[in-house]
Amino acid sequence: MSNLQHIAQAAWRIRRHAVRMGEVQGQGYVGQALGYADVLATAYAHALNLRPGDPGWEGRDRFLLSHGHYAIAHYAALIEAGIIAESELETYGSDDSRLPMSGMASYTPGMEMSGGSLGQGLPIAVGMALGLRHRGNPAFVYNSMSDGELDEGSTWEAALSAAHHGLGNLVCIVDINNQQADGPSSRVMGFEPLADKWAAFGWHVQRVDGNHLPAVVRAFDTARNLAESRPRVILCDTLMGKGVPFLEARDKNHFIRVEPSEWQQALDALDANRP
């Protein structure tokens, strides 16, 4: 099996885990999870240096989920990575579960920050990257964020700071699905030309189709291996609902409604296209 096939299978399982968790509660940000699965699979099945049995290992790469409502997607990736047991997905969103609707670093293995208020991940990631460099730790910090977080001043303050400090151990990944709570992201607060803006802030910039796995893998490899001492950003254009045709075609909004009868249909659609 090639490395690309390995990652594609991981993406398929991540999508399936997310749908199964959504079915448990009858809700969840499944559209985002399906759209972002290829990026998460590349991170957890290819790029990140981790020890699944020791999620607090000091030498680990840190993956911060700034967009805390993507927790269902991140849990699916943590299950795929072996950090969380697959059996726990049945507890998603339940009382006393380690898998709450929004990520909590205090009790969920593999969660590096607690999510909720958007725009906080990149400032935290800058501090982590500075701290790791100060200690001589070669680990990387990956900050995952949504396009809605481009509206936050804290994001751009952190971006400026990261470039100022030459943080070559920091990678930011932006999911551009053009959806946020108040409507299409590009209408709420226009952010184009986005690549030019990050470049003007001193970052190494790549923009890729976030659902084209070879391009995503190349972008992660380039970001990791770049010799320059400056932060890297990967802008990923994704399609909400990717992998489930009837959800891909559904009118897009921040929270895609899935009817009770459609959860099994979604699993069947994924199974029909297993890599």
Written overview of the protein:
The chain has 275 residues and is of the alpha/beta class. The protein has a single domain, classed as Thiamin diphosphate (ThDP)-binding fold, Pyr/PP domains (Rossmann fold). Helix content is 43%, strand content 11%. It contains ten helices and five strands; from the N terminus they run H-H-E-H-H-E-H-E-H-H-E-H-E-H-H. It has helices at residues 3-25, 30-47, 71-81, 121-134, 153-164, 185-188, 194-200, 213-225, 245-248, 262-272, and strands spanning 62-65, 141-146, 170-176, 204-209, 232-237. Strands 1-2-3-5-4 form a five-stranded parallel beta sheet, sandwiched between helices. Helix 8 links the parallel strand 4 (204-209) and strand 5. Helix 1 runs antiparallel to helix 2, helix 1 (3-25) packs across helix 3 and helix 2 runs parallel beside helix 3 (71-81). The radius of gyration is 17 Å and the shape is globular.
